[in-house]
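Handout, tutorial session.
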Amino acid sequence: MLTKRIIACMDVRDGQVVKGVQFQQLRHAGDPGELARRYNVEGIDEVVVLDITATLESRQALARTINAVARQIFLPLTVGGGIRSEDDAAAAVDAGADKVSLNTAALNNPELITTLAGRYGSQAVIVAIDAKRRGDGFAVYVRSGTSDAARDAVEWAREAESRGAGEILLTSMDRDGTRSGFDCEMTAAVANAVNIPVIASGGAGGLDHFAEVFTRGHADAALAASIFHYADTSVSELKRFLRERQIPVRL
């Protein structure tokens, strides 16, 4: 079994980390640079910075925030939010990002996935999918979860892979911020449909939730925000818990 990754996500608005419930009711969660410094010490595997209002406000992800985080960590940094073009991606990489995450722009212009994969390599291109349950399927939403994309998450993940995406960041909007556990059924549906890593996001609230999404959800990585931001769970404690259950994680 391949090593599983634990990823900390920082949703950034106006230069500060925020966290909400189901993409709403945002509250302050800390300074990006300070949190990044703490995660680097605690042993997180990767950090994701998402400028959650960049797409809605038609602006690039804040280079200053990216740079502040990049200076504090010595591990992979993914940046998303407002990356709509090759130039936007280049600005994020120049500011310190190792990977870029595309969401709305990828659906509007799928060729952008292929272009960026050709320039930086597939390993540097993540396609983020925000989805809600709908009947027996999973509906994709865009523009920070405000607009129905009229696409199925499994179908879109397959297409993203075929166009050059190196990973899928799959967020359950139903579970986001609820701490009720990852949507393992949705995660497994996407993970079983593609041959690239799937990062599970939305709903982490306890140690068992991570073990469950790695086993029942077939996730390659699990991303969380609030339980790490507010120090409810330490990274070292989580990794120890997973190792005790024979789930391989990085030391």
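The second record follows below. Compare its token runs with those of the first.
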Amino acid sequence: MPLSAPFPTLTYDAATDRPREECGVFGVRGAERAAVLTAFGLQALQHRGQEACGVTSFDNGRFHSERHLGLVADNFTDPARLDALAGNIAIGHVRYSTQGAPVLRNVQPLYADVRGGGLAIAHNGNLTNSRLLREELVSAGAIFQSTSDTEVILQLAAKSRKTKAADRLLDALKQIEGAFALVALSNDKMVGARDPLGIRPLVMGELEGAIILSSETCALDMIGARLIREIEPGEAVIISETGIQSVRYAPKTNPRPCAFEYIYFARPDSVIAGRSVYETRKRMGRRLAEETPADIDVVVPVPDSGIAAAIGYAETIGKPFDLGIIRSHFVGRTFIQPTQAKRDLGVKRKHAANAAVLKGKRVLLIDDSIVRGTTSKKIVRMVREAGAKEVHFRSACPPITHPDFYGIDMPMREELMAAAHEPEKMRAMLECDSLGFLSVEGLYWAVCNAPRDPEKPQLADHYFTGEYPTRLADFERAVSSKDQQLSLLVDA
């Protein structure tokens, strides 16, 4: 089945031509002023979503919530606002929308009163059967307040026949499909859960007796917490004053963590499954150098995500690594660009050529990935205009040929450069002297230190292979409906 429309992306960042971040979740139970720690944790996870942020706490039988559009630092530095989030238990969320528009009603954590107590949820990922479930719930009389797939989980919990709110949430988890890591508040309990394949990450830590849940270990480091362990795929943990209860709501299966966490999304100082993200990206660069050598003078990363791979590449071939492109971190958002001239300007606002490094050199550029190729082409031109004698381009991941349905916003298949063109055609379109990609086997060597198991792949690698780890219920229904409509037109 061709993976193309009718699922358009709504806010893909055309200016940077990057897959957009997903979301980040964080939770604390058992710490004085838990909301303050949660705000710090969310700042460490800000790279996972910059559209909106929210914190919900629980104290003396009451839930307290603050949800805002914008960055954590712009919304959670006011002492009065943090004081209003009372209690020793809190959860938080940083958001980039993959389902639901970037408006306040979709900002998480989402809250509802259900039988057995209140329930607040913050969710990272994307449910692949949310539209099907939503239609069924609405048909049964449910009233939705948001367009986020996270509310589907709340509605399923509300419909459950279980008596306790935490048990109602576990009941809901058994009905949803796709990728998710979530933290939830159920009165004085905090719940963390991870999808059955472990596509989205979630870890548990400890700080002076308080239990922490986080999308990444870098947020634990931010607040001085120690890592206890990862939440297992298909596991939910219920954290209360009596301790930590582990519940397996789905049977054990072959885990499929997202390959893009290693390639691009996770912060370099995070650790996933015991592997340093930074060192893994350097390994990608080393293997890339072995697979796609080039006779060059200097290795230059496309900042910031290409830096670690570029270091590994340069070390392997014994050539200098240098910052031939300088990135500005203070340009603001550029994805709404009404004219082509402003879109071109958006790239120059974010990246500037360092002519002192580039002039007269044979330059090898390394980026984390190539999506549509629009920004890559502009960067190649910028480096040539700065005086480079040759410009070679390398991608530290395999060619992206298929879209994602698990919480990463990227173009549909017909817009992906590698899905539509052979490598030599891509090289000509990018106007570079040579082009190379890390192989799928090279990716597995870097991340897993083992070959890809064709029967039981160790990663969610559908972006490169087209082998999706779960069924895509909503997409399949949409394609089927589209095919039926076309058939009616032909018959007419």
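Points raised in discussion: The longest helix spans residues 473-491.
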